[in-house]
Design goal:
Blueprint lengths: L3 H12 L24 H14 L13 H5 L5 E4 L7 H8 L10 H24 L9 H23 L11 H4 L9 H18 L12 H16 E3 L5 E4 L1 H16 L23 E5 L31 E4 L1 H6 L29 E2 L3 H4 E2 L4 E2 L2 E5 L8 H4 L3 E2 L11 E4 L2 E4 L3 E5 H14 L3 H16 L15 E2 L14 H15 L5 H9 L2 H12 L23 H6 L11
Parallel strand pairs: 6-14
Antiparallel strand pairs: 1-5, 2-3, 4-13, 7-10, 8-9, 11-12
Helix pairs in contact: 1-2, 2-5, 2-6, 5-6, 6-8, 8-9, 9-10, 10-14, 14-15, 14-16, 15-16
Protein name: RagB/SusD family nutrient uptake outer membrane protein
Family: Belongs to the SusD family.
Organism: Adhaeribacter rhizoryzae
Length: about 575
Amino acid sequence: MKKNLYKIFIAATLVLSVGCKDYLEYEPKGTLTANQLTTPDKVDQLVTAAYAAIGNDFWDGPITSMWAYGSVRSDDAYKGGGSVGDVGEYNTYEQYNLVTPTTIGNANNTWTRAYGAISRANFALKALNGLTDADFENKKVRQGELRFLRGHMHFLLKVLFKNIPYIDETLSEEDILKVSNRQYTNDELWNKIAEDFQVAIDNLPETQSQVGRANKLAAKAYLAKVRLYQAYQQDENHKVTSINPQRLNEVVALTTEVTNSNKYRLQPDFAENFLYGFDNGPESVFAVQFSINDGTEIGRLSMATSLNYSLAPQYGCCWFHIPSQNMVNAFKTTATGLPQFDTFNNEVVTDADLTPTGKPVDPRLDHTVGVQGHPFKYNPSVIYNHSWERIPELYGGFGNMKEQQEATSSSFKKVGPFYGSAKNIDIIRYADVLLWQAEALIELGRQAEALPLINQIRARAKNSTNRTKLANGTSPSNYNINEYVNGVNITWNQENARKALQWERRLEFAMESPRFFDLVRWGIAAETLNAYLNVEKTRKTFLSAAKFTKGRDEYFPIPQREIDFTKGLYVQNPGY
């Protein structure tokens, strides 16, 4: 899809310039209706327009990268920027100061864009429903793709807001206005989202001729993700009350089907997940597709992270999404190459510690964090420097790495004061699939089966050191990582396996956004984040008043404008 589907994206835009109102009803610009789009080629373009919609975002309301919602709200990152008030709503997320539903700022835009994408999928489904299988031989496949895309957007909204209205193609505009965000219980809403992925599984092939389209295995992986989240059953106040073994077994079965397909595998080098030129590789189960020089004015660039480049001479703005000291400390390892589970945060890691003979660390540190004197983005002639930091006395110390591309990359483009790239954003990596399966196995008491899955991830990390080297061929840090060996370097019981799994997810996906959502799923967000803040506020004074309120801050409030628009039909989340 990186090549041929972009031409279709442009054509689809010409046929249908899609837009969405501020709320839930959908109406394309112009006069076209689903009943008028009756030819297979036009309907196919509607499907492509639905694909485009899941990547139609900007930093002021992202639906691709969740850095502001899942990374900054966790213990992984600081907001960054030029001051605490610079994009101040993100500061309220970081400090958990969303005391009223009117303060959620850009999350309002995320709500609107996500439902806009759902509307595109529903519009295309209505048009598809008007065709017979004889009219359009790809009808069922395209229906499966659209259900996949709709499921993806509802999933995103659910982990952000929890209690959301579920909107499908059977609803008229009048019907939509009658749909409550409490129409379904928490469990029922997960089942509605799961239904979309099950339809996708039933209708999609394992391989698509155009790269980037959803396939059967991607749908199985996403359904596994839904069932894993659903397994951790929450009460009205977001407390995890139990873990459902039936759902866990579904996760194991679905992820096993994905792993046994031999279609996906880990990239040999961890770095390749974050470098342009490796998009749609063997680890990418499903990704939002981006492009450059495709005939449009600026290209279909990824702009959700466009604030997050540094003040290096080749960039110049804006230095958001900065690794926290806590997260950097988490990469430290013991003499035996394992995480320092209980003591990692007792001692601060500084530049002086990150040398070839310094404190031992997991190699993924240098793939994730910009460190003074270390190669930036795997280029030994471009060395990270503290002068790139916008307000070093406030947020400084380290820089982010994964989401950025070199200014010399053919994927990179300056857009006004911001920066975009054609690098895809992976929604599901194969590493996710392995760790979801490991997590389910551990919670089922089958931790011995999870051990080799976690060790696959660690083995890949150990072998991912070639690209991080300095110009003289040496490693910039003292890498020391090893696999877990039961009875040798760890007692692999359920408790220790759970700890290892949770640690592995943090290090593997650091600065990629899932951290906050993981903590909420596991039911440990308040405990983990308040412990983080109690120490971190002694290091960063801007966090002095930050506090996570249990039973409230696990989710955003429902946007007040949506409650007002529905005349109080929507019920606000607890605590707001």
